């Protein structure tokens, strides 16, 4: 990778990413993606030469939708880098573009790759970056990402949510991040994940509910019945649930007899 950077003119390659000719644009984009998947100093050169604005420009061009997945993959690689890489993504506010894809793209693979990129950013975010992400309304975005029907993405998302809530708790006692999370239907989402097919995801969802929302969700009128049932099923084994239902039937039968 380093030898490649020594040979090619990176600023020229990045300009070619925006070429109107597909036969030029595609190989340039793939090269940039592979460079960002390599050593940190190589990816740093891509960023320094204007790589992020070039990628963002593609995401904002509806005529280049066929490239969205590869662009999101490249952004995801950048997000997995050091703290300063995430700062560059925050400064560019690339999350509004990724959010649009997660919610509106008709192609599942594009939504999935965009979700992965957002999750990578949130997993690595520092306390300062967490507050910047909250200001950029990324918390509702990560919840939307977690509602995609993909187990691996949901596994990444729960890790991202854990880091955001932890950073929020370290910043202030009121944990404004947790409040934003609650207002974004995040508690309902954690209830839903509590019954996740991957045991570690379900356990982590329960852990986050108990740690950050034990006094917040008991009387939450916005709680959705379906999500609450998922949570109850995750916490209750089949035998206990059968006993509860049996008890309800006995009470109903007793009340009917009294009448």
Q: End-to-end span in angstroms?
A: 82 Å
Number of strands: 0
Relative strand content: under 5%
Structural class: mainly alpha
Large-scale geometry? globular
- Helical fraction equals over 70%
- Regions with pLDDT < 50 over 5+ consecutive residues? 217-228
- Gyration radius (Cα, Å) is 23 Å
Question: On the 0-100 scale, what is the average pLDDT?
Answer: 85
> DSSP helix count?
17
Largest sheet: none
List SSEs in N-to-C order.
Answer: HHHHHHHHHHHHHHHHH
Report on the architecture of this protein.
The protein has 259 residues and is mainly alpha-helical. It has helices at residues 2-7, 10-17, 22-36, 40-48, 51-59, 68-79, 83-92, 95-104, 108-124, 127-135, 138-146, 151-171, 176-183, 186-193, 199-212, 225-235, 238-258. The longest helix is centred in the middle third of the chain and has 21 residues, at 151-171.
């Amino acid at each position: 990778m380093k030898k490649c950077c020594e040979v090619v003119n990176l600023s020229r390659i990045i300009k070619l990413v925006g070429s109107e000719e597909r036969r030029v644009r595609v190989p340039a984009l793939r090269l940039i993606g592979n460079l960002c998947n390599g050593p940190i100093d190589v990816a740093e050169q891509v960023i320094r030469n204007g790589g992020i604005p070039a990628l963002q420009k593609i995401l904002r061009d509806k005529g280049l939708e066929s490239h969205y997945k590869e662009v999101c993959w490249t952004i995801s690689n950048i997000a997995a880098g050091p703290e300063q890489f995430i700062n560059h993504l925050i400064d560019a506010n690339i999350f509004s573009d990724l959010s649009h894809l997660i919610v509106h793209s008709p192609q599942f693979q594009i939504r999935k790759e965009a979700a992965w990129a957002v999750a990578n950013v949130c997993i690595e975010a520092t306390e300062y970056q967490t507050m910047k992400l909250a200001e950029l309304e990324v918390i509702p975005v990560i919840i939307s990402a977690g509602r995609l029907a993909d187990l691996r993405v949901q596994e990444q998302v729960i890790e991202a949510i854990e880091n955001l809530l932890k950073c929020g708790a370290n910043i202030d006692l009121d944990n404004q991040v947790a409040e934003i999370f609650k207002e974004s239907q995040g508690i309902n989402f954690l209830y839903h994940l509590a019954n996740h097919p991957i045991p570690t995801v379900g356990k982590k969802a329960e852990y986050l509910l108990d740690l950050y929302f034990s006094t917040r969700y008991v009387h939450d009128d916005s709680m959705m019945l379906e999500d609450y049932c998922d949570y109850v099923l995750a916490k209750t084994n089949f035998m206990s649930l059968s006993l509860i239902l049996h008890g309800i039937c006995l009470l109903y039968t007793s009340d009917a007899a009294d009448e």
